Every structure is written in structure tokens, then in C-alpha cells.
């Protein structure tokens, strides 16, 4: 049998250990022989805890012999306690935790047996806070079932199991639990049998846990005082009388509330109004109410609500809305006017451009149908002649020279307004000083100016969007009626990133002042595009660039500067900044015959935008150098021409440079060759080492005695020259040698010799 390694437990020891564990863990075993006691299972969070573990050996199987070692664990964390002998042979361990900061934990008592820690007793501890006081208790009575629904705000979390109840007590009855909220909610409903209507009741919320009880403020109410009524119903709305701004409203209260004393409210508004107009203090069960101050020919939306006449009562929901449109009446008020006048030429008349503002809503009193301009105010008997009748807010007309007043009125279906007198004052004086404008918002402009020394009755502001298309839109304007003002806000027709020209006119008592002008943006950003560069001229060291100014629609702000960048292939980058009024720039210091990339950046106060690149190559020479080179070459060519002319004119020089050479084709030898000689091929010796050639035949040609060469008399016209033929003589075994060749054509440009007569020639043949 193999020997077991030292220190390894035997099979018998393992069996005994398993049996002991079963005995310790069986019901009634070790857990029955230990008890854990704590001062309180529920303690305030952060307080001290004291616990005691008692072990009775006679009840713990397997622990009868030997010393018992007791230890503690708080959940899975070991804590240290003290151990002592207790009465009756028990072992006792005491534990004190000075600060318990867990809301829930298990405290275990353990003993050590056979080197292992066994849990033999346990106590569960919970910690938290006393319940917090509920807040803002309120109740409302539902008239459909007469149940009283109350709600409140819970206090801070206690971390302990808590019970909540809504308590109620009558004037002569004991407190009872009216209802209990479910699912952790903070509201519940007290049923009708527990309520005393039209009598005061005391209602509160009670919250209880292991550490105490808290109650909300007690609410003493009559349940009917907190009843929420159904909304009333508007039955009729009409104007009273027909020419006033008052209306009459009739309503009915909800069913079941006719016996109650009610307090009601009315609200209304027009579609253009952002807020409601509220009418309070309407008392009564049902009936009518009157309200004045409505605008004529305006649609209104009306709603109403009611409650019991009690400070604790709840308002009903707003009734379904009802629309009503008031009646029309003639327009009222004066119109704001602005004009321009100039002589009409030779006719002795005055051309007038009259503009005005449409009446405000509270002055139009209906839908304006048109405007009428006359030369005199309207009289009772008859109407004055009309010089302009239009539906627009401007009119151009001519009046006799010297006319100083015209009259403007608006009319609708109900009548015509009183005439507004327009005095055509002349313009004179000096422009206002210090006019400036800036952003008043993304879609508005704030204008400032300095007050003039003279007394001003009003100001007129004109503004017009700047565009590259002439006549794009007419100028907008507004009148400032405060003559002491030095600032104004322009809000109509202003768009961001667009430039506007602004003019300010002071209106005096007897004249119109000369205008002051400025320009402004409500908001700026980087330009939409940069100008396109063009090359105007280039040399070996300079390049002149030009560009077109950006259209005003693309600027998006005031252009502060242009920056030109240029770089060569070596990445030498340079730049220059110029004023926005400049439209050209000369780059200096460039390298000859070098490629450059150039682009321009347009900048505003809000940023810059780069343009596309322009590629240019500098020249090798400047324009002056090129001109000098061409001039030099021209002079040299001219001198050469002159020399050629001189040579052509001078025969002596010509003979020295170009002597006359006889034409061999016209010699007697050329004429002597028979035409019937067979063509002999030209034999070319084979390639071999060069050496001396053997002459096999010598032919001697003799001329006639007494006639010098080239002096033959002229004869008949010569036949066409024969083709050149080679003459070869061969004697002996050697290769043939060509010894003569006569050309059939003469030299071009040479003088032909006279053709000789036929003669007998004798060939002398000699042997080498």
C-alpha cells in the first residue's frame, strides 16, 4: 500500500469533518446554542450599537471540549469584540460599534472550529431618521361623487418602513383615518360618508415609523368651501349700443351650483394680443355683465370661470371659448405724413410725393378702404375736389405753384376720418451733427444724433437697403414725435447682414431741416465671397493685380481691408494688407522665371473669406530689356541687309566672291559622246585593303589647231544633252577602272559655252 504524503488528511479525518459540519448546521444544532442580543434593532442613523453573543456549550455539539473563540462580522466585514466567561459555564462576547452609518445590516456571531469560522447567531439592525413633517396639505371636493381628495408633499426620506394616513375629525367626532395612500403616493380621497358638508372639519396627515411620528399642519375647512365647480357657459355676446366700445355678455352657471354664492372672472383677447385681458369681481349666480374699452371691428375670444365665494375655494376650469367681432366706425386720429416736393418745370406747377402711415389698429376702427387727398378740408355742404384717391400709403400728384397745404383722410365702410393737414414746408438749415447708427438687435438698428440748437417739433427717419440694383426698393420711414429725443430704434424691414443707408430730417415749426446721412448693419459676418483677382501686368520682379469690388449683397458687413497672399514653390509666403477703397496692388521683389500662387482675402469686423488662387509666372527679362534686345537684333538685321545690297550692286566684289565657272555639260567632250553607246554599269570594287590602282588606258583628246578653247563659233541649236555615262577600260586580268564620266546637265546659273563642230578624234592607246 502506498505511503501517504505527510500532512495530507486521511479519508477518515475528512469523513469526521463532514459529519461535524452536518451536526453544527442541522436544525437545533449550533444555531440553537448561541443567542445574539442588541440594544435595539432600529436605531437612529449614526448612533452607537451594543450587542452581546452568548454560547452554551452543552447545547453545541462538537464544542463541549476545548476553548471557544468568539468573533463578530458586520455583513462581510470583521469587527472586534471582547470575550468573557458568563454564568453557568457560558462563553460571552460583547461588541460596541460607536457609529452605525448603514441603513440596514446583519450582525453575525461566529465561532472558530477546526480552523474555520462558523456563523452561529445573527441579529438584523436597521437605522434611519424619524419621519419628516408633511408639507403643503391641500384638499379639493369633487362634486361628481363628493369625495374629498387631498394631496401633500412628503418630507425627507427616513430610510425606515413608514406608515402614512390621512386623519380627519368632525366638530364633535373623534379622529378617524380618512384614507391611506397606496404605492408610495402622496394623495388619497376621503369618501363621502366620512365627510360633514357645510361644517368645519379638521384634516391632517400622520406619518409613523419605529423612531417616531410626525404630523402635518391641521387644515380646518368646510368641504364645500374647497369644492371645484364645473365651468359656466357663455350664452350671448352683443354690442351696446351700436356706436360705443362696450359689449354685454350673458352666461349660465353649471348644474348643481345655482344655490351657491359665486364669484366669477372673465378673460378675452384679440388674435394679435400676446396676453389675456382679465376682468375680475363679477359676482352673481347667473346673468349678464358689461365691459367697455374694446376696439372697433376686432375679433375677440371670450372665456369665463367661477368659484364659491370663499378664500379657500378653487376656480373652475375656463369655459369653452366664444368669439365675437365688434362693429365698425369711422377711422379716428391723425395720420403721420412725409412729403417731398419739387417744381414741375415750365408749367408753373409743383410735383408732390406724399407718403403716410396707415392708421393703427385702435384708430382704424375697421378695415380701411382707401385714402383721399384734397386741396381744402371737407365742408358740410359739399365735398372739395379730390386730387388723389388711392388704397396705397403714398401718392404722387401736381398742385399749382405756391400751394402750401393739402388734406389727407382715411375712410372705411362706416365713414371717413377727420382730415389731416399737411403743410408743405421748404427745406433749409444745416444737417444734424453726430449722426451714427449701430445694431439694436439682429433685426433692428439703433440711431443716435446730437440735438440741434433750434427747437425741433419732430424727426423723420428714412432708411433704405443698399443694393447693387438701382431702384430695388423704396425708402422706409418713421416719425419720432418727441422733439427732445436724440435716439430712435428702427425695427421695420431690417435684415441681418444687409447694409442700410439712413437719413434723419429735423422738423421745425416753419421749415424742414437738411438731412444727415449714415450707413449701418444690424449684424455682420464674413463676406460670402472674396473678389476675383486679375493679372494686369507682370515682369521679372513685379506683378500688378486688380479686382472688382464685391457687390454689396455679398459683403455681409463693412469691408475693413483686403489681404493679398503670394507664395512660390519653395513655400516662401508673403502678404500685404490694403484699404477697402483700393482695387489694385503691385507685388514687388519677385524672382525671375518663377511660378507664384496668389489669392486675396476680404475681411469684415466679423471675419474674412479667402478667394480662389491665381497662378502666375514671372518673366526672364523686363519689358525694357526685351525692347533693347529686339532693337539690337533689328539694327543687326538692317545692317546685314545693307551689306547684301552693297554686294549686289558692286560687280567687282561680286566677281571676287562668286566667280563664273564654265558648265561642263556644254563642253565639246559632252557633245562627242555617242548616243548609242550601251550603258555600262558602274562597277564598284569590292571592299578590300586600300592600295595603288593600276592605270590601264590613257585617252588624249586633241582640239583643232588655231582655235583656242571656248572660242568656237555659234552653231545650230544643240540637242538635249545625253545622260552621263561612265567610260571604263579593262586590260588583262585586273579589275576594270573607271577613268571618265561625263555629266549630261550643266551647273545651274552658269554660262553655257558655244557648241563645237564635229571633228575626228584619234585615240592613242599606250601600254603601261
UniProtKB/TrEMBL annotation:
CDD domains from the entry? Answer: FN3
> Which residues lie in Pro residues bias regions?
706-724
- Name listed for the protein in its UniProt record: CSF3R factor
Which ranges does the record mark as transmembrane?
A: 628-647
Specify the species.
Cephalopterus ornatus (Amazonian umbrellabird)
Give the GO molecular function terms: cytokine receptor activity
Q: Where is the signal peptide?
A: 1-32
Q: Which UniProt keywords apply?
A: Disulfide bond, Glycoprotein, Immunoglobulin domain, Membrane, Receptor, Repeat, Signal, Transmembrane, Transmembrane helix
Q: What is its main location?
A: membrane
Amino acid at each position: 500500500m502506498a505511503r501517504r504524503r505527510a500532512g495530507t488528511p486521511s479519508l477518515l479525518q475528512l469523513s469526521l469533518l463532514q459529519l461535524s459540519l452536518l451536526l453544527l448546521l442541522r436544525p437545533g444544532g449550533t444555531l440553537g446554542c448561541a443567542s445574539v442580543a442588541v440594544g435595539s434593532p432600529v436605531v437612529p442613523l449614526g448612533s452607537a450599537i451594543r450587542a452581546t453573543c452568548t454560547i452554551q456549550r452543552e447545547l453545541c455539539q462538537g464544542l463541549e471540549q476545548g476553548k471557544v473563540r468568539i468573533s463578530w462580522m458586520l455583513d462581510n466585514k470583521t469587527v472586534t469584540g471582547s470575550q468573557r466567561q458568563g454564568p453557568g459555564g457560558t462563553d460571552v462576547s460583547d461588541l460596541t460599534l460607536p457609529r452605525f452609518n448603514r441603513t440596514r445590516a446583519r450582525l453575525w456571531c461566529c465561532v472558530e472550529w477546526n480552523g474555520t469560522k462558523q456563523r452561529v447567531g445573527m441579529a438584523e439592525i436597521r437605522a434611519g431618521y424619524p419621519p419628516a413633517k408633511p408639507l403643503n396639505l391641500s384638499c379639493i371636493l369633487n362634486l361628481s361623487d363628493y369625495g374629498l381628495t387631498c394631496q401633500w408633499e412628503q418630507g425627507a426620506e427616513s430610510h425606515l418602513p413608514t406608515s402614512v394616513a390621512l386623519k380627519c375629525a368632525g366638530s364633535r367626532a373623534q379622529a378617524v383615518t380618512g384614507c391611506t395612500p397606496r404605492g408610495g403616493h402622496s394623495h388619497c380621497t376621503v369618501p363621502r360618508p366620512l365627510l360633514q358638508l357645510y361644517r368645519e372639519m379638521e384634516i391632517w396627515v400622520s406619518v409613523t415609523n419605529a423612531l417616531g411620528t410626525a404630523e402635518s399642519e391641521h387644515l380646518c375647512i368646510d368641504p364645500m368651501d374647497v369644492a371645484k365647480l364645473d365651468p359656466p357657459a357663455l350664452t350671448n355676446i352683443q354690442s351696446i349700443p351700436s356706436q360705443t366700445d362696450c359689449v354685454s355678455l350673458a352666461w349660465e352657471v353649471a348644474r348643481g351650483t345655482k344655490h351657491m354664492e359665486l364669484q366669477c372672472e372673465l378673460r378675452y383677447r384679440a388674435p394679435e394680443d400676446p396676453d389675456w385681458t382679465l376682468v375680475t369681481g363679477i359676482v352673481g349666480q347667473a346673468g349678464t355683465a358689461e365691459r367697455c374699452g374694446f376696439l372697433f371691428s376686432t375679433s375677440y375670444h371670450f372665456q369665463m370661470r367661477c368659484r364659491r365665494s370663499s378664500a379657500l375655494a378653487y376656480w373652475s376650469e375656463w369655459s369653452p371659448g366664444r368669439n365675437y367681432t365688434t362693429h365698425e366706425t369711422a377711422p379716428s386720429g391723425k395720420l403721420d405724413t412725409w412729403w417731398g416736393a419739387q417744381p414741375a418745370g415750365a408749367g408753373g406747377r409743383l410735383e408732390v410725393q406724399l407718403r403716410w402711415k396707415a392708421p393703427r389698429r385702435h384708430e382704424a376702427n375697421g378695415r380701411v378702404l382707401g385714402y383721399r387727398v384734397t386741396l381744402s378740408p371737407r365742408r358740410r355742404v359739399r365735398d372739395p375736389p379730390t386730387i388723389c384717391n388711392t388704397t396705397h400709403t403714398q401718392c404722387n400728384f401736381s398742385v399749382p405753384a405756391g400751394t402750401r397745404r393739402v388734406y389727407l383722410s382715411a375712410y372705411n365702410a362706416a365713414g371717413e376720418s377727420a382730415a389731416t393737414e399737411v403743410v408743405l414746408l421748404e427745406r433749409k438749415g444745416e444737417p444734424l451733427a453726430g449722426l451714427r447708427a449701430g445694431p439694436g438687435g439682429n433685426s433692428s438698428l439703433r440711431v443716435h444724433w446730437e440735438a440741434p440748437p433750434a427747437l425741433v417739433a419732430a424727426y423723420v427717419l428714412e432708411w433704405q437697403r443698399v443694393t447693387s440694383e438701382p431702384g430695388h426698393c423704396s425708402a422706409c420711414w418713421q416719425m419720432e414725435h418727441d422733439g427732445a429725443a436724440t435716439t430712435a430704434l428702427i425695427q421695420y424691414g431690417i435684415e441681418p447682414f444687409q447694409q442700410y443707408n439712413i437719413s434723419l430730417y429735423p422738423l421745425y415749426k416753419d421749415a424742414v431741416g437738411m438731412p444727415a446721412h449714415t450707413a449701418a448693419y444690424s449684424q455682420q459676418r464674413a463676406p460670402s465671397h472674396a473678389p476675383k483677382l486679375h493679372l494686369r501686368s507682370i515682369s521679372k520682379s513685379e506683378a500688378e493685380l486688380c479686382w472688382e469690388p464685391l457687390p454689396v449683397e455679398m459683403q455681409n458687413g463693412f469691408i475693413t481691408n483686403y489681404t493679398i497672399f503670394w507664395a512660390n514653390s519653395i513655400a516662401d509666403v508673403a502678404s500685404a494688407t490694403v484699404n477697402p477703397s483700393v482695387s489694385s496692388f503691385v507685388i514687388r521683389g519677385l524672382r525671375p522665371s518663377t511660378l507664384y500662387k496668389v489669392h486675396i482675402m476680404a475681411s469684415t469686423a466679423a471675419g474674412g473669406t479667402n478667394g480662389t488662387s491665381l497662378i502666375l509666372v514671372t518673366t526672364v527679362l523686363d519689358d525694357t530689356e526685351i525692347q533693347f534686345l529686339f532693337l539690337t537684333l533689328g539694327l543687326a538685321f538692317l545692317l546685314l541687309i545693307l551689306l547684301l545690297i552693297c554686294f549686289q550692286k558692286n560687280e567687282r566684289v561680286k566677281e571676287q566672291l562668286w566667280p563664273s565657272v564654265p558648265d561642263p555639260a556644254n563642253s565639246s567632250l559632252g557633245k562627242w559622246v555617242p548616243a548609242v553607246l550601251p550603258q555600262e554599269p558602274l562597277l564598284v570594287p569590292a571592299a578590300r585593303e586600300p592600295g595603288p590602282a593600276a592605270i590601264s588606258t590613257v585617252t588624249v583628246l586633241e582640239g583643232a589647231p588655231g582655235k583656242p578653247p571656248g572660242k568656237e563659233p555659234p552653231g545650230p541649236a544643240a540637242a538635249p544633252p545625253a545622260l552621263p555615262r561612265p567610260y571604263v577600260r579593262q586590260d588583262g586580268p585586273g579589275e576594270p577602272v573607271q577613268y571618265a564620266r561625263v555629266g549630261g546637265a550643266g551647273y545651274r546659273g552658269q554660262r553655257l559655252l558655244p557648241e563645237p563642230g564635229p571633228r575626228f578624234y584619234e585615240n592613242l592607246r599606250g601600254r603601261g
